[in-house]
Amino acid sequence: MQLAFDADVEAFRADFVAFLDEHLPNKAHTFERSQSSSHIPDWARRWQRLLFDHGWLLPGNPPEFG
Question: DSSP character for 35?
Answer without folding.
Answer: S
